[in-house]
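<tokenise_the_fold>
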Amino acid sequence: MRAPMSWLAEHVDVPAGTTGDDVHAALVRVGLEEEALHGGDVTGPLVVGRVLSFEAEEHKNGKTIRWVQVDVGEDEPRGIVCGAGNFLVDDLVVVSLPGAVLPGGFEISARKTYGHVSDGMIASERELGLGDDHDGILRLNAKGYDATPGDDALALLGLDDVAVEVNVTPDRGYVLSIRGMARELALSTGWAFRDPAAIEAGEGTGFPVTIADDAPIRGVVGCGRFVARAVRGIDATKATPRWMQQRLTLAGMRPISLAVDITNYVMLELGQPIHGYDLDLLQGGITVRRATEGETIVTLDDVTRTLSTEDLLICDDMGPVGLAGVMGGNRTEMSDRTTDVLIEAAWFHGVSIARTARRHRLWSEASKRFERGVDPALQAVAAQRVVDLLVELAGGTADPLGTSVGETPAQPTIAFAPQDASRVTGADYSDDETRDALVRIGATVVAGEGPTWRVTPPTWRPDITERVDLVEEAARVVGYDRIPSVLPSPPSGSGLTRPQRLRRNVANALAASGLTEVLVAPFQAEADARRVGAEPVRLTNPLDERRPFLRTSLVPGLVETAQRNVGRGLTDLALFELGAIFRVEGDHGTDAVPAGAVRPDADVLATLDALPTQPRHVGALLLGARVAKQPGQAREVYGVADAIDVARRVARTLGLAVDVRQAQRDWLHPGRTAEVLLGETVVGVAGELLPSLAADADLPRQVAVVELDLDALVASARVSLDTATIGATPAATQDLSVVVDASVPAGDVLAAVREGAGDLLEHVALVDDFRGAGLDGAKSLTFALRFRDAERTLTAAQATEAKLAGLALATERTGATLRD
């Protein structure tokens, strides 16, 4: 929220000389976060001048300039070179004298140009930062300014004003107004506060308004109060006063037209969104209702929007004229032809407005305020303020036509013991200090039975609902510096749990191996969520409608991350992620999601507690060069073997050994896919992405991926790792070549050889897989075997005997035969 200092000073007695930094410091003391200062870009001597005379001169470069004599309130006029030609003798202009600094750090000095010494500069609106008009200089008399040569143009144009900007948290929506920020400034400093809402509000009658929200969505009644007032005979073509334009601009809003600017001005001043209708374009009365499914409205931004049954509408007899609390419709939009206006000031439920704004991706200044909570007692006052300004500035006449539907809800009363403030914060507050703090925020404090008070929060503070909220307010107003700083003593035995340490070890091991860790949001489109074959979990209220499902695998997120990085020119990637996936097991979730402001009953809470299972996985994606091309070395790309190596590296980090066997997955390359097994349990999959899927993601044809159930591996992790001793006796090495049907996985053959060879077999590895002429659909597998006995030197016969024992078991299980 941006608040011009001059506007704040209308409602708070700001001492002379107070700077924007001083105001920021004061607001920080009551819990607001400073953002920036806006304005104050023009400094130095900037004065009003009167054009006495000018001479047009043409120069060799083809440009015509004017040598101008300007009265700036001094004994002698100043001579200034000006390239604009839109001013006349006796015009009042803005003169930047030497020493002035314009926006962008543009310093003005006397300089020789076009054969003259130009003693300053006559400025345009654009050069002063007042607008985009650069076709000519700013003519003050044409803009309605009444001034005398030598007057301070900074004050005249409001260029000496500064806007302070603070970040408003969702629970402090009342600060999204000059009224709210001025109140906070007064709370912090003790300066006198004058409430801009303290005006007498009139009432209108005779205009039919019906609130037809008989079937509230999820317990939320969309509209609690609706006030309408009419003004007739306005001149919509009148220009918005310069002071109002300056304040709107400094507050971050673009001036549009007088009637619209007045509604925006009041919204910024009081925090109550206002909407104006061209009364002549309204057909009949107004009905506030929910939309029907598929109904449409064309909003003020000329976009046709398809509506949901949760959307709240403002309708006349012809249909929708506004998306309540978000944006009006263009059919009844105020224009230069508007003479009669109907003003709407309503209170809409924040949850309903937030859902509509999110659904249509349409966030407005109005919806921002309704989402955070608008004062439900402010509607009549805000409507009256708009009526007064339309009468004063647009020449309108207040009409008795209008209405007021709904009542201001009663504020809850909180039982509060004043000693709670000291007990909770650890500071020593007197009862008088606590009472004064609560009264200053607008609360009503009444003594109850015994030491307990009955505290009623003000209508603009919907966030105050419990005792602790009152404690926070007392601490905030009295001062956070009163709260002692005490470091807590950490309990013994704290630190990472064993699963946490093991997961961190896995991450460190992969990072040390050259992989880069990424963090990917767990939300996915339906196609990505279903691609791995699991039933995805759909969110009832997703942050992004394009990604309404929770992930069932880490791979789609890694693919998307790779796609983004490859598009930025990073062609060699090795990525990994540790994160949770989501699986539906049984009945989970509920369609009866309650409103955010309504406490669910016990049955709904029970269903909400039934969350999907969330096992932790580790996944990796490898693409591009594993070994870069270099002299004497061809380029080697990542493949399925590298994915399997990542799986084994994870297992080794946890003190485990995993096996692999050929497998099939619809989203992985057939023939280059392996299941990862821990004993007989499948704990993951490794392989190469299906080329068509890689192409869809604009990735290279060969992309290796692996995903493992990290929770399952951590649960089986060994406390200590076995260390292999270096054998003191010689090893005996032999090769074994077998012929087996092409459909038999090589891993099955290797497992049988390992088991059959017995304890003498120290190591076995597949070194060749040949398929070709003379094998008739079979394949030849060659294994390298290493035998060793810790107590004696093996003979060749002993090693051969162990090898043939392995062959025998492989023949029995897989049909393998010794190759000639």
